[in-house]
Amino acid sequence: MPIFLLATEEVDFNIHTIKEFTIFGVKFVFTNSMWNALCIAVAIVIFCIIAGRKIRRADPLKPQKGLVGILEMLVEMLDKTTVETMGPQNKNFSAFYGGMIIYIMVCNLSGLLLWFVPYPGRLTIDFMRPPTADLAVTLSLALITFFMTQGFGLKAKGLKGWLKGFTEPVAFLTPINLIGEVANPVSLSFRLMGNVLAGTIIMGLYYGMLPYLTYIITPALHFYFDVFAGLLQSYIFMMLSMIYVSGAME
Amino acid sequence: MAEYSMEQGTALILACSAIGAGCAMSAGIGPGVGQGFAAGKGAEAVGRQPAASGDIMRTMLLGCAVAETTGIYGLFIAIMLIFANPLVSRYLRIIGQ
User: Fold this and answer.
1) Residues in B touching A195 (Cβ below 8 Å)
2) Under a CB-based contact definition with an 8 Å cutoff, are residues A193 and A141 in contact?
3) Tens-digit pLDDT profile for residues B69-82
4) Which of A23, A80, B56, B81 has the fewest Cβ atoms surrounding its Cβ within 10 A?
5) Which residue of A has its CA nearest to B87?
6) Closest Cβ–Cβ partner in A4, A190, A197 for B82
7) How far apart are CA A165 and CA A248, in angstroms?
8) Structure confidence at residue A1 as a pLDDT band (50, 70, 90)
9) Helix or strand holding residue A183 (H, E)
10) Reported pTM
11) For residues B39 and B33, what is the distance between their CA atoms, to the nearest angstrom?
12) CA A6 → CA A2, A119, B21, distances in Å?
């Protein structure tokens, strides 16, 4: 990707290719964004294994304290949100959406974390570039929602009812309905990526162009873009995804 | 007709792309107005019915998120024009470089 920006050399918020390799004639690239996404996924899995072991050992008859108590509260909150949004018959979706929101939330907040970040030819300790600022990550999450929408719609309504849903309210509007279905994952993925990428670019410009003001301004920017916008966007992604899926099943 | 070099053509395209990116960001006006309107109506609704503030908050945030989409599209076009300009490679292909 050509870069047309000539500021100081420290302005750096792009995705770097670390390694290129070819499998069966198809070129694959491994980017630092993928490395960050992989590290976050592994960290979440390790945390979940530890937390699961603690929960299994906990006494179910007593009120819980500490980590188990906090997790219990969060799961109850998630179940309540799912029931309120998707209806009590779809309560089991809360497990899936819990995983989704935890992953997106940790990805959005990862701009605050220091971690080993590989650049071409060297490995440094740096602030992570949030993986959700990469369209590949958000589009894959949005495509999961898209296929879930169509799949559960097909399962709930049957083939005839599912196909009939596209011709409503009149058969004349079928192309517009199809475009509307395809626009859902596009708008979902662009919304999340645009918000996070805008924050990444603005903070990168501040880090590179105003080195003396960095210590004053960037904490506020980190709080707004990483914490506030990150948490809000992960919540909104989950809510919109829930609404699409439950809307297709009605 | 004067002859232009490849560098001059590329520079012209980059300059026009920068102006175009600025123009594309005027898409931020609409979401600003829309979100402000939604937030004002949300505040009105909470004032009228404080018991339903949770529901109102959720609906307002969702509406804001959907209203934001057009602004994000404008931002995306601006980012594309500045960091991943597709026009330069097309220009180079047209003049046969």
Assistant:
1) 68, 72
2) no
3) 889 889 989 988 88
4) A23
5) A2
6) A4
7) 9
8) very low
9) helix A174-209
10) 0.86
11) 10
12) 12, 19, 16
- Cα(A244)–Cα(B12) distance, rounded to whole angstroms? 44
Cross-strand partners of A22: A27
Segment among A88-102, A206-220, B26-40 with least mean pLDDT: A206-220
- CATH number, domain with residue B59: 1.20.20.10
Q: Each residue of B18-38: pLDDT tens digit?
A: 999 999 999 999 999 999 999
Task: Count Cβ neighbours within 10 Å for each residue of A183-200 and write b for 16 or more, e otherwise.
Answer: ebbebbbbbbbbbbbbbb
Of A5, A191, A197, the CB nearest to B65: A191
Domain ranges of chain A: 17-249
Tell me the two tokens of residue A61.
């008859």
Nearest to A248 by CA among A114, A124, A156: A156
The two three-digit tokens of residue B17, written as one number: 């792309």
Residue A202, H or E segment: helix A174-209
- Of all residues in chain A, the one with the smallest CA distance to B69 is A191
Q: What is the pLDDT of residues A32-42, one digit of tens each?
A: 888 999 999 99
Domain containing B57: what range?
Answer: 29-90
End-to-end CA distance of chain B: 21
The count of domains in chain B is 1
